[in-house]
Amino acid sequence: MTVVDAHLHLWDLERSAYAWITPELGPLHTTITAERANAELRGAGVDRAVLVQAEDSETDTEFMLEVAAEHSWVAGVVGWLQLDDPAAAEAQLDRWSADPAFVGVRHLVHDDPRDDFLALPAVRTSLGLLAARGLPFDVPDAWPRHLAATGELAAALPELTVVVDHLGKPPHERPDFAEWRAALAAVAARPNTVAKVSGLHAGGTPFTADVLRPAWEAALELFGPDRLIWGSDWPMTLLTEGYAGTWQVLSALVGELPRDDQQKILAGTACRVYRLGSVSTNQPITPEVPC
Fold this sequence. Notes:
The structure is a single chain. This protein is 39% helix and 12% strand. It has an eight-stranded parallel beta sheet with strand order 1-2-3-4-5-6-7-8. It has a single domain, classed as Metal-dependent hydrolases (TIM Barrel), CATH 3.20.20. The chain is an alpha/beta fold. The protein has nine helices and eight strands.
């Protein structure tokens, strides 16, 4: 079965600041290389991966595109644009879109001080440019500050594919779980939204299938396999189970589904949303995997 990790990070601390990566983060406070990532992918039997921005900077996007040009296991790059400046965003789009590896855009909304970032007129204009070019927009760590706004964005720009990273960060085993689910349901009601089953670790909560199951079953009910995408969120998982441990838990949950649904979540939806090229694999591409 083809497997595409649709959410993996690399960074080079000599190339850019990555201000959020502080010594307190232990194993994350180092350069994360393509070679190290590829070793993790091979160990888990994952075919390829989509690199996702870890900093709101051109430098970070340039770095990922350079890696993509050198490593065939990189299926695509989700980079960054200056969304609050449509003229700058359009110029960056013209530049990045010349590279076939550029497949989407993300902004670290959870680190942005503006609570209304997704509703800013300039940002909406820039996101309209993405929609016109068929590029999806990833929204990270949306709960609780930006999940409702994500649904509003999807309603305002129905031609834009909106990707909810990490299922919006569900609050496992917390009193606000029901509120998270209701907010996610409002997002899922918009047909131009998809969600990533990634980054589901929560501080102080064990990372087990039993703990994740309520959020997983909610995602399946609300989005269905056609609109769910698997991603590891490595190397963030170095703080917990690592790549292998994360893959073991998520693949067990996915493995409970019919094979066709498994293939959609593990590759097919990512291939469609990010318009990825042919996936290198020893197994034949099935009709459910449109790349």
